[in-house]
Amino acid sequence: MTRFFNDVVVGEAEELGSHTFTADEIKTFARAFDPQPFHLDEAAGAASHFGGLCASGWHTASMWMRLRVDSLKRQAEDARAQGRPVPKLGPSPGFRDLRWLRPVKPGDTLVFWSKIVDKRVSASRPGWGLLTHQNWADNQKGERAFEFTGTNFLEVSPGAAG
Amino acid sequence: MTRFFNDVVVGEAEELGSHTFTADEIKTFARAFDPQPFHLDEAAGAASHFGGLCASGWHTASMWMRLRVDSLKRQAEDARAQGRPVPKLGPSPGFRDLRWLRPVKPGDTLVFWSKIVDKRVSASRPGWGLLTHQNWADNQKGERAFEFTGTNFLEVSPGAAG
Prior knowledge:
Two copies of one chain form a homodimer.
Chain A: E1 13-20, H1 23-33, H2 37-40, H3 42-46, H4 57-81, E2 94-100, E3 109-121, E4 128-138, E5 144-155
Antiparallel strand pairs in A: 1-3, 2-5, 3-4, 4-5
């Protein structure tokens, strides 16, 4: 998505990357932000409705953000190396329909994807468009673990009309 | 919300707590999960559309979770001290309509609230009900910075019919 808004194609999907969650990082996140027993301790997790230690849902969501930022950086570097301009990505107004579909356990590898499902020129911010993207993560068994629909402002190409 | 599902009153609002975001913790979260320049560096933030260093939206959301867990723990301790049973809080299927309405900057103090807006008996999980809660955080100027609508399973009282 180093494309400017006007060059983005609705329907395009991108693999952001993958991440293997470790017990240590699950517990580190949980100590800071979600200190519930099943996110902190294997035995407490086994006794819970999750059946084992599992990541905070906000940890999974935050990891989506990390992989998205890493992907954007790689693409910006590629564009710069090719002498192409790099569009500005604006703020996200928010998201909708976030679902945690399956627990994420130590050793699980999630592959994160993002697909553009809508684009429209911003009425409130001249020079910007608003992208809607569907995002999901599947685990190593091919099971969907996480999904949400997000929005972001993206710069319209300086050369484009409107 | 140490009440069992059947005792929860729709319309009830609860102040979960408040948190003052520091530059250090904003940067620590960003390094791990959202390494964009405006979340990592004061000068880059000043040059951005945010006008200053600001917290990742996922940091704000994760802090909501932390304050909610802390609030639930306090209430569970009170219940235990009074000899009352403590209901089990089940997993969250997900969220909708999350909005980041204003940047959260170093020194900003957010007060987080949660209000029950709907309850229904779960069709899929006998013994459980599903709560819908509106959540928001206002900064020290009284400006809304963050909001979303969440859902959670909550245990029905063992003594209740149904």
